[in-house]
Amino acid sequence: MKSFTKSRISMLYVVLIVILLALVSVSSFIASRNMENESDAIVGDVLPLLTTTNRLLTNLINQETGIRGFEISGNEQFLEPYNSGKEQIALDLETMSSFDAKYPTLQIILDTQAKPAITNLQRYYDSQLELIRAGKLDEANARISTGKTMMDRYRVIHASMEKTINQLTTDAYNATHKAGRTSRIITLVGGLIALMAGGMSIVVFYRAFQAELELRKSEETYRYMAESLEIQNEEIIAQQEEQQATLAKPSERERELELLSSYQEKLTGYIKLSEFLKNTLPALLNSLSQDAALVVLERRGNLDSETAHYEVVHAIGYPKGQVQPAVQELYGPAKRVFEEGVPLTHTREVTEREQGIHRGMTRAVEQYIPLMDDTQTVIGFLLLTSYQSSFFQEENQRLAKGLVRQFGLAFYAQVMNDQKLQQAVDLAELNEQLLLEKQLLEGQRDLIQNILESAHEGMMMCDAQGTILFSNQRMNMYFGLHERIGENLVACAHEIGSEVTSFYGVAASIEALIDRSLPHLTQRFSFMQGEHMQHAELYATLVSEGTEQQGYLFVFRDRTEEERIDEIKNEFISIVSHELRTPLASVLGFIEILLHRELPKDKQKKYMETIYSEAQRLSNLINDFLDLQRMESGRQSYHFAPVHLPDMLRDIAEQWQDKQRHRVNIHHEAGKELWVRADVDRIRQVFDNLISNAIKYSPGGDHIDIYLSADRGRVTVAIQDYGLGIPEEARGNMFSKFFRVDNSDRRQIGGTGLGLAIVKEIIEGHHGLITYTSEMGHGTTFLLELAQFEIADMDGRIVILEDDDNLAKLIQIALNKLALPSVQLRSAEEGLIALERCREEGPILFIVDILLEGERSGWDFIAGLYKHPLHAQTPVIVSTALDPPHDYHEKEIEKYLKKPFTMERLVQVAKRLIEGGRCHAYVFPAQDKEALTDELQRNGIEVLGVQENQDMIEVNIKKPQVE
Hints:
By secondary structure, the chain is an alpha+beta fold.
C-alpha cells in the first residue's frame, strides 16, 4: 500500500509536471500565435492601406506632371504616367473599399472626401487634356491655379487618411504589446508552477526512490521542454524586434513621401529656367540624399551651326570657383553621356576644397544622367555628386530613377518654355520693328500721296510706252484719268482732243514725246469748264532716265488765276492811271492858269479850292493804296478803346451835312448807350467810306438813313441809301480789290474799287461782320455787326488795368487771398470812362500797367485819376509785368517776363494799402526814383516824398485841389 502510494504519488507528480509543461507550451504557443496575428494584422492591413493611400497621391501628381509635359511639348509619351495612373487609381480605390467594413472611420473619409476629390481631379485632368488637344492652351493655362487648388484640397484629405491609418497602426501596436504582456504572464505563471513542481519533485525523490528513473526521465523531458520554451521565447523576442522595425517603416515611408511630394510640387509653375533649377535641384538632392548637383546644357549659335559649347546653367553644393561657367569641349564621362545617352557612374578623389573643414571626405561618387528632348536626343546632362555613398542603392533604385526621370521631363518642358518665351520676345521685337517699318513705309507712301494729292497742279505718271500709271485728284478733276489707269496716254489724249479742240495740239505733242521725236514738252492751252474759261499749262519731265522704270511725269498747271491777276493788274493800271491823272491834270491845269494869267481874287480862290480838293482826292487815293497794302501784309495795328457809336455817328453826320446836299439821318433809341471796343480812327474810316458810297451811289436821292440797335450782346449799324442798287451777279466780288460794277450808270462815278475792301479788312480786324442787302433801282443797305461793350463797374472793387488777359487773370487769382472783388480793364480810355461813372464808394485799389491797349498809356490814366475830384486819393500800384503765382505753369504759347514783384509781394503791398485806408501813395517797381519823380510831375502830379525799398518805390503825392 505504501509502495503503491509512492508510485502513485510519483506518477501523479510526473503527470502534473507533464501537464504543467503542456500548459506552458500551449500558453507559449497561444501567446506567440496572438503576437503573430497582431503582426499579420499590421502587415496585412495597415501597411497596404498606407501604401495604397500614398500611391493614390503619387499617381495623381504623376498625372498632373504628364499632362503638363504634354501641354508644353505636345508629345503623347508624356501621357504615359497619366494613363497608367488613371488605371492604378481605380484599382487602389477598389483595394481601399475592401477595408470599409473593417475600418468604419476610414470608410467615412474615403466615401465622403477622398473619392469625390479624386473624381473632381480626374474630371479636371480630362477637361485639361481636351483643352490641350483642342489647342486652347491659354484657357488651359488659366485653369492651372484651379487644379493646384483641387490638389491642395486632396493633400489635406490625404493627410487626414494618413492620420487615421497611423491611428490604426498605433492601436495594432498597442494590441501587440498587450499580447506580448499576456504571453509573458502565462510564461511567468508556468515557470512558477514549474518551480513549485520541481520542489515537490525533490521531496518526492527522497520519499520515492523507486520513481527516480521516471523522475530523471521527467527532468530530462522537462529540461528539453524548458530549452524549447527558451527557444520559443527567443523567437518571440525576435518577432517583437521585427515588429518594431516594421512599425518604424511607415514613419520612414511617410518622411520619404513628404520629400517626394515637396519635390513634385516644385517641378511646375515657373516662368524662367533659372527659377525652376533654383527650386527643384535642392529638393532633388534632399530626396536622393545627394550632396551636390549641376546641370549642363548644350548651346549652339544657330540651328544650322555644327559647333557648340556647353554651359553650366545651374550648380549647387560645389566649392566656389570649382565649376566653370562654360566650356568648348567635354571629356570623359561628360562626353560619353552625350554620345551614348545612358547614365554613367564615376568615382574620383575629392579636391582639396571638397574635403571640408574636418578633412574627412576623400572619395566622390558622381552620376552623369542624360537630359533628353522629345526625340530622345541628348540636350544636356545632370551631374549628381555624393561624398559618402553610391547613388543607386538597392532599396531606392526605382524611386531614384523615377525622380530623375520626372526631373528630366520637367527640365525639358521648362527649356521649351524658355525657348518659347525667348521666341515670343524675339517675335515681339521683330513684330515691333516690322510695324515701325510698315508705319514708316505707310507714312512715306501717305506723305507722297498727300503731297501729290494736295498739290495745286494736276499730276500724271506714265511709263516709257505711254501706259498711265498714276493720276492725282486734280488731274482727274480736269480729264478723268483716274478711271483710265492702265490705258494708253496717247489714245486718251486724242479722245480729249476730239472733245476739246484746243487740246488737239497738246495730244500731238504728247504722242511725239512718247515716240521720242520730241525731247521735251511745254504747252499752254485754254478750254471751257462749265461756263468759265480755264487757262492751263502742261509740261512733261523725264523720270528715271536710263533705267527700267523710265517714264514721264506730266504736270498740269491751272493758269486761270494768273490770267485773272493779269487782267486785274491791267485794270488796276488803267484805274490808277485814270484816277491819278484826272486830279493831277486838274491840279496842273489850274496851277498853269494861276501862273500865266492875271485873275481876280475870287477866281484865284476858286481855283485854289479846286486844286486843294483834287490834291485831297489824290492823297485819299494814295492813302487807300497804302492802307490796303498794310492790312494785307498783317502790319496793321489797332488801338482798341471804348467808342460810343451814337456820338461818333452824329459827329460824322455833322461833317457831311455841309459838304453834300444829302441829309444824314441817325435813328437811335434815346437814352440808350451803345458802346463797342474799336480803334477810333479806323472805325471812323469805315463809316466815312460807307456814308461816302451811300451818297455817291444815290445821285437821285436827298438823304440816307443810319439805324442803330443792339441785341444779345451785338450792336448792329445799318446804313441805307436810296440809289442805284447793286446787281445780284456782283455779290461775290463786292468786297474784292479794284472791283466796280460795270454799267453805264456807274461809269461817270469815279472810284478805285478799294473802299469796300478796306472796310471789310477793318471790320474783320474788329472781329465783326459786314453784309448788305440791295434792290436794283431802290437802294442798298450795308449792315455792320460788332460786339457790344459794357462799361465796367469800379465801385468797391480792385481795378486791374492790364491788356494781357492771361496776366490779368493771374493777378486776380493771387488777389483772391484778400477776399475782395476785382475787375479787369484793358485800356486807359476805358478806365477813365468807368472812373467818371463812379457814383458811390468808388474803387479801393488800382493796379496799373503802363503799356495798354488803347492810344493812351497808364500814365494818362494816373494823370486823369489825380485830377478826379472824388477818387484822386485811391492808392495805385504800378506794374508793367508781375510774376505768375506758384501754381501756374507756363504753356507753349504763354511766356512771361521776370517781374519786379512776386505775387506774394504784390498781395502784401495791396493788403497794406487797402487796410491803411485812404492815402496819397503810388507804389512803383524799383527803378530810378529821380526819373520817376520827373515823369509824375510831367503828368501834373505833385510829389511830396519818395520812399525807396528793396523791390519797390512808394511815392507820397499832394492831395489835388478840388474845384
